[in-house]
Amino acid sequence: MYLIDQHTKAIMEECKERARDAGLNFENETLEYIVTNRDLLDLSPKYMIPTLYDYWVNDIEVLQQYAKYKLYPSNPFETVINSRPAISFYNDNNPDWLNIMIFYHVLAHIDFFQNNIYFSHTWDDDFVGIALADKRLINMYRSKYGRWVDYVIEFARSIDNIVGFYFIIFNQYIEETHKDPPPKLDFFFNHFLPDIIKANELDRYKYLEHFNELLEKHNNRAEQIFFSELSSKYPELEAIYNNYIKTKPKVTKYSDLLTFLNEKSPFLNKVENQWMKDIIVIIRNTALYFAPQLRTKIMNEGWASYWHDKLFRNDERICGHEIDYAKINAAVTSISRIGLNPYAIGMRLYQYIEEFADKGKLYRQFQELENIYERESFDAKTGEGLKTIFDIRKYFTDYNFIKIFVDQDFVDRHQLFVVGKQYNPNEQLIDYYIKSRKAEDYKQMLTDSLYHPPVITPDLDKTNENQLYLIHKFEGKPLVQEFIPEVLIGLEYLWGGDAILETTQVIIRQSEDGVYSEEQKKVRYLCRQRNVTIEEI
Description:
This protein has about 525 residues and is of the alpha+beta class. The chain has helices spanning about 5-20, 35-45, 55-70, 95-115, 125-145, 150-155, 165-175, 185-195, 200-220, 220-235, 235-245, 255-265, 275-295, 295-315, 320-335, 340-360, 365, 370-375, 385-395, 400-405, 410-415, 440-450, 485-495; strands at about 1-5, 30-35, 80, 85-90, 420-425, 430-435, 455-460, 465-475, 500-510, 515-530, 530-535.
């Protein structure tokens, strides 16, 4: 692994100038490295962070990657990490014209990292340097405590998917603004509209747009005017809100289970176990650093694909390589008929939104049209497409990106559909078929594919020095049962007492006539002295 030569660096610097002229915004300092495929295999289990701490699972993943590479050799073009300065890695056999396309792709990624607000807690830190310091600390503890260090890492990593990412973002908002979000507005948009009156995404967007208009005109009086207008349409709103305030559960700083363990565990707070708390902090901070990437994959890859396509096709250096580019771009951004290609869906959504915003089709005047010919010919010539997608890049995650903008027009335009599969007993094969072409079904398929960790919090009334009592908030998806015992054994160790988990299991039954039905039941897991039992509540 070595830095790119001066010739290639000059190409990158010119790409930076053109990207900035197009509207992208990123810090000037970047590092670019040339790597071999073997380097990529070695770095991929560490999320491409060369200085990340060593862990035995990473070694196993590297060996697996080696075995896969022998059977299915691949040649990745680039990888970029969110660091200060931004670091990107390039394959050692890329020609100059391909590097130009890839540089545009990478610069768009960097723009996304440095401007999307869900990455804001990463903007001021050099994570590569932090990871190096963490690695050295863990190695020092390994020399002193041996394999117990890896036990703590494994137990902490088993729950680092439920780290309180949105709680961190909320706290950051409080620190920056010194005020809570208006509670009544939060209730109206996040509870009343979706949960009480079951408003669809378009109606919710209309209310939000109207409130923003009032805010622009009336400033501090906007909220008062907004709810005054709503009082006639929803007279029950005030009573429901008052009841919600009375019954709303209090959010504590212990919403993050790793933080709760570090602060309240009787075992970890023993003097001889203080070193374990340092490791848990490292695991938690690492998980928090990568959390926004998990929640913006479609947006991030779509944004990078949108810009490499837009910038490179207008770059005179493409001359003579149009066919080569078309082949590579099609391989990267073609729509997968079975499965999901985030590059393809993300790029086309940005293009779709830009076109609709340019024509004013995101506003009420168009949304209320029912005549198909009027919808096709509508053009208010607002010219706000580029501004709109930059705003989306700044404020959205994959979830609201999909929920708001994937509609029937988008699905029809790209001939998208949901694929079903069934067993063919005659041919002894799995048959794939088009299950639905409806936008709602396709949108649901996309949202089901998104990262959505479970919500598990400690019950402060039932937790004491002898037991850790956890509650899983059931959201339609049960926990993976095969992982529960191992995680509870780790939690029992970190707490120094029993680990108890309340959760909901889903049992699927098949009747005599072949009809499937679901049954939900609440269960309680108890881990005591590494022995896990389960009982129905």
